[in-house]
Amino acid sequence: NERRKTGLYVSAKLSDTSEQRLHDWISKQEIEKATIAPIKDYHCTVIYSRSSIPKEEWVNEIVLYRAKSKNLRIFPYDKTSHCLVLEIKSPSLEKLHKDLVAVGAKHGYPDYIPHITLAYYINSNFDFSDIEVPDFELIFNEIKSENLDLDWAAK
To answer: Most buried one in 16, 31, 63, 75, CB count within 10 A?
Structure first.
């Protein structure tokens, strides 16, 4: 299978309650000319690996992982635009990331920064310094592994 050779993508899905709370929070913020991420797209990438690992190492399970908001950041989104993300602190997600790397998954960045994308097509110099991060706990309730989709940003 040609797609199987592209690698592995593992993500954590927020609980319905956490999704709704986060969506309600971001919808109240003053973010000019950005596209708020659809609630169905809220997730935290655990690993985006261009090399695959044995299928028996894939993680697909119901979980109860807790996370706290750390800060907002601007990340590159595609070749021409940026996105606003909420960086989070989650020891469970950080451990899962390390476990996947230990069995052969490759991480293409110097550090793993757990985050949730909140808005797309944001100005790269957007000033979010006066926006307070959410003060509620976020709950992730599902981990999903799948073949890596190299065209994810085009969707």
So the answer is: 31
117-140 pLDDT tens trace = 999 999 888 888 889 999 999 999
pTM for this prediction: 0.90
Q: Among 3-7, 33-37, 45-49, 98-102, which is the least confidently predicted range? A: 3-7
Rounded alpha-carbon distances, angstroms, from residue 33 to 79, 115, 122: 18, 21, 7
Rounded to whole angstroms, what are the CA distances from 101 to 50, 96, 105, 107, 116? 12, 9, 5, 7, 21
Burial readout 120-155 (b: 16 or more C-beta within 10 A, e: otherwise)? bebeeebebeebeebeeebbbbebebebbeeeeeee
